[in-house]
Specification:
With 82 residues, the chain is α+β, with helices and mostly antiparallel strands. The protein contains four helices and three strands. The chain has a three-stranded mixed β-sheet.
């Protein structure tokens, strides 16, 4: 099991300008990460997910994280939905 603040910090270290929200979906190994960043501009949804997923590859392989759900958007995409 991985601590939520460690997940948050890892995303923030890789994407310093990102807004990051991490939620435990079930028992600490099913995680939902919301990342809002300009770095996603021009990237497909799959490319965005691959970028974030790569940060946790070893944790997914060793079982520290069993499931990782992601929402990856640009600030403009968030603004357009409000």
């Amino acid at each position: 099991m991985m601590e939520l603040n460690a997940i948050h910090d890892r995303v923030c270290a890789a994407m310093p300008s990102a807004q990051v929200h991490v939620t435990d979906m079930r028992g600490g190994d099913h995680i939902h990460v919301v990342v809002v960043s300009e770095q996603f501009a021009g990237m497909s949804r799959i490319q965005r997910h691959q970028m974030v997923h790569a940060l946790f590859q070893s944790d997914l392989q060793n079982g520290a994280i069993h499931a990782l759900q992601m929402t990856c958007k640009t600030p403009g995409e968030i603004d357009a939905n409000h």
